[in-house]
Queue: 2 jobs
Job 1
Amino acid sequence: MTSQTTSTINAYTIDGDLFKVIKNDEGQYSLWPEKKVTPAGWTETGFTGSKAEATAYVDREWTDMRPLSLQKAMAAHQ
């Protein structure tokens, strides 16, 4: 009997890959593989970098985690 080792590759976390930062209409951010087409409902922010760089960019830019619709609703009640 032989033993086979299989490994899977997660296309979203390969070291050395570039990620683009995308944003939806609710102001929510996401990292997306730079080589993949941006999904419908999301727009590119113009930032591309390593996973660590893209994460740092999101941490700097996305300071209010509430969706924009909630932010607007709460502001209307003030």
Job 2
Amino acid sequence: MSRSIHWTTSAGRVSAASSDAPALPRFRSLPDPCLPADQVGDQGWRLSDLLLPALTLRAGAIEHNVALHAQWCASVGVSQAPHAKTHLSPEIVRLQLDSGAWAMSAATAHQARFLAAVGAPRVLIAHEVVDAANIAALTRLERTHPGTVVMTLVDSLDGVAALEKNLSAAGSTRPLPVLVELGVPGGRTGARNLDTLETLAAAVHASPSLVLAGVEGFEGILPVGRTSEHLRTVDGYLAGLADAAARLDARGFFDEVEEIVLTAGGSVFPDRVAAINVPKLSRAVRVVVRSGATATHDHGPSAEHVPLAAEAANPLGALRPALDLWVAVVSVPEPGLALAAFGKRDAPYDSHPPVVLEVRRDGMAIDAGDVTVERMNDQHGFLAHPDTLRVGDIVRLGPCHPCTAFDKWPLVAVLDDDDHVVGAATTWF
């Protein structure tokens, strides 16, 4: 006879009907997988106690990166709204807010309500929201967190109509601040030219449900590089954002706000955003960058192009890679090939495979030669090596895209520089 299953419980996990059923193991790299996250740093654990594979975060590196990025923003006169989609971690969000972040960026209504719950004073949803359920969620957020200002994007008249209709149906009581988005042909979302953007802004300005708060764009979809051609393309696009703000201001479309928000800037080109020549408008302009990957930096090929990369030799300092994935070699079945116990469930693979940073044998670093991750499947990483790897070796990998690293791990152990586990960063994807 089968027994019933409760699909939800107060603890947010599947359990058997029996009230004395043990908690399901949740945090896969911890020796005690059910330990509350806020007690992880009190156990006296070291890296060697973690079950591999294990994603870890260096406390010194991420604290340095968040402080350095905040210092850089202040030095160039821009505000920061770090994109929380990278990590969706309350611990890291609080670190960024404590560093002086003006707002936090989100990709969805759910991420917005998460950020409001963590304490963000402003949330910039850098995306369009058009369906009834998500718009209703924004209306509920307005009621449950009246002190949090939420802004979202529009790039079409249909999007404006969807917001108006669904805000009204959800009983919204105050106009929703929106930013009109300027895109690029062949790119992602966003109006494709200034004439379309102006028509869109006029519709927002005329709407009783919306208020035009600024202009948004994302230059990160343009080719990455620091050649004159790369920078000319990026600067041309960003100049279009400034032209759009001036054009809409001349029409009086910002008469319901105290300042105009002009925002772009992923992790690669925030310096070009800071260099935008913003004309004098009818009210103050707040330039906001939304860099998300600066908190952990990156091991991928884009990392060398960011303005605070070591290669840039910025006088303020350089970002440090903060994420490591530790894996064990479990098989060396043929010459030149080793299999490590990690895969697509553990590491990003959408941009580039992880970079091999170090190999340890019996706790000591060894000269591993040219070891590379050739490919990954669901549970195996295929390592090419010049006959140096052995079963039991521990390999330290550098993820190449932090935006798809954290989502695979509900808890990331935080290490000090001596490999002691000093805490944990939880994620809420």
